[in-house]
């Protein structure tokens, strides 16, 4: 099989709505067999990009290739992909099995083959006992599974998903995340998944494409975008709570600050890397939130509010305390551009920097 078959290449693609750039000359490569997540806040352009890949909309400029071929003149049905959307769009008057089989019937797949594929997919998705029910007799999670089964049964190598879990409650969403990932891996599907939920992205993705205002901020594995955010936007978007950003001035005098850091820099520190130290810049306690295993400590350093995550078993910090952090876990950013300054990364991370999948935009 051609190894580039389900690779998607987005080359310099723009989409303007009047003067507004929903996508501003973006380029990214989505690899075969990967679970790629387009992540970003509302309005950043992720659905627009998915619709362009699907062929539901046309770009203003640039090229989209699937398996190496420019698909600009191909309708959605000619792109060899399936789609799952937030609204399940099941036919209410058809049974579960009729809903799942609908696309195959339209494509005139023979009856015996349809039946064989239905049994396989229903077993895979845990839908076998529900096949004769109507959608109205299913829970939200079951309906979503039918929508997914309809995509899976098409046996197309690429599946595009736009916020498919957002109608489900939190517990079901967590279960479905695991289920979706397992099915994707079992079938070797190339998935492009749109979400604004960074936890979904972190738990399911092979690679995350962080988007902001029609541009790509960073492309990387969940570990890469978490540990080495390429921009202050990514630093503030990934993580619950997100990375703290201190003006370098606020931390001046700390022996933990790398040499060469000046007022034109921001210092990013994750909540779990901070602790109460013997000496260091003096912080002021503002409040504590108990989370079970952990406590979130809300505090202030000069004019900067920040959050520390501590094990619930650790002693509570006093009203004033010296702030320390795990050596070498800082991220240094340029105040003006928001870009990560990799020259301040500790040497031990040089292997990450050489990794060719660690692309930044
Ligand atoms: P959400 O998570 O809210 O769906 P998104 O990241 O998917 O957001 P898009 O739907 O891709 O964002 O929209 C990107 C930008 O393009 C937004 O500013 C939006 O208002 C604009 N836009 C999208 N579709 C149209 C349209 N048909 N006409 C005009 N503007 C549009």
What does this protein look like?
By secondary structure, this protein is α+β, with helices and mostly antiparallel strands. The chain has 2 domains: 8-227, Rossmann fold (3-Layer(aba) Sandwich), CATH 3.40.50; 232-344, OB fold (Dihydrolipoamide Acetyltransferase, E2P) (Beta Barrel). Helices cover 25% and strands 32% of the residues. It is built from 9 helices and 17 strands. It has helices spanning 46-54, 96-106, 111-125, 140-152, 170-187, 198-204, 222-227, 232-237, 350-354; strands at residues 8-17, 20-30, 35-39, 61-66, 69-70, 81-85, 158-162, 190-195, 207-212, 215-220, 244-247, 265-269, 274-290, 294-301, 304-311, 320-325, 331-334. The strands form 4 sheets. The protein has a 6-stranded mixed β-sheet, with helices on both faces. A 4-stranded antiparallel β-sheet has the order 2-1-4-5, covered by helices on one side. A 4-stranded antiparallel β-sheet has the order 15-14-13-16, with no helix packed on it. A hairpin with a 3-residue loop joins strand 13 and strand 14 (294-301). The longest helix is centred in the middle third of the chain and has 18 residues, at 170-187. Residues 349-361 have low confidence and may be disordered. Adenosine-5'-triphosphate (ATP) binds at residues 17, 20, 22, 40, 42-48, 196.
């Amino acid at each position: 099989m051609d190894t580039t078959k389900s690779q998607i290449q987005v080359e310099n693609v723009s989409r303007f709505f009047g003067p507004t750039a929903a996508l501003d000359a973006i380029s990214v490569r989505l690899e075969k067999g990967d679970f790629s997540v387009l992540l970003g806040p509302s309005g950043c352009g992720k659905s627009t990009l998915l619709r362009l890949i699907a062929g539901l909309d046309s770009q203003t400029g640039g090229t989209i290739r699937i398996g190496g071929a420019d698909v600009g003149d191909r309708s959605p049905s000619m792109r060899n992909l399936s789609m799952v959307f937030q609204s399940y769009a099941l036919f209410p008057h058809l049974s579960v099995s009729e809903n799942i089989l609908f696309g195959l019937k339209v494509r005139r797949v023979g009856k015996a083959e349809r039946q064989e594929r239905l049994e396989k997919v229903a077993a895979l998705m845990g839908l076998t006992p529900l096949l004769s029910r109507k959608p109205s007799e299913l829970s939200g999670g079951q309906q979503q599974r039918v929508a997914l089964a309809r995509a899976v049964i098409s046996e197309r190598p690429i599946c595009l998903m736009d916020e498919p879990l957002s109608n489900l409650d939190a517990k079901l969403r967590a279960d479905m995340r695991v289920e979706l990932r397992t099915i994707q891996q079992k079938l070797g599907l190339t998935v492009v998944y749109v979400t604004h939920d960074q936890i979904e992205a972190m738990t399911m993705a092979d690679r995350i494409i962080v988007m902001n205002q029609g541009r790509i901020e960073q492309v990387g594995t969940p570990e890469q975008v978490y540990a080495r955010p390429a921009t202050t936007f990514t630093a503030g978007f990934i993580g619950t709570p997100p990375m703290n950003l201190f003006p370098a001035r606020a931390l001046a005098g700390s022996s933990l600050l790398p040499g060469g850091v000046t007022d034109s820099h921001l210092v990013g520190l994750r909540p779990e890397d901070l602790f109460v130290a013997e000496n260091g810049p003096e912080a002021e306690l503002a409040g504590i939130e108990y989370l079970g295993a952990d406590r979130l400590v809300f505090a202030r350093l000069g004019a900067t509010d920040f959050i520390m995550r501590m094990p619930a078993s650790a002693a509570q910090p006093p009203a004033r305390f010296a702030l320390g952090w795990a050596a070498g876990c800082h991220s240094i950013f340029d105040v003006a551009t928001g870009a990560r300054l990799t020259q301040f990364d500790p040497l031990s991370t040089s292997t990450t920097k050489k990794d060719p999948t660690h692309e930044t935009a």
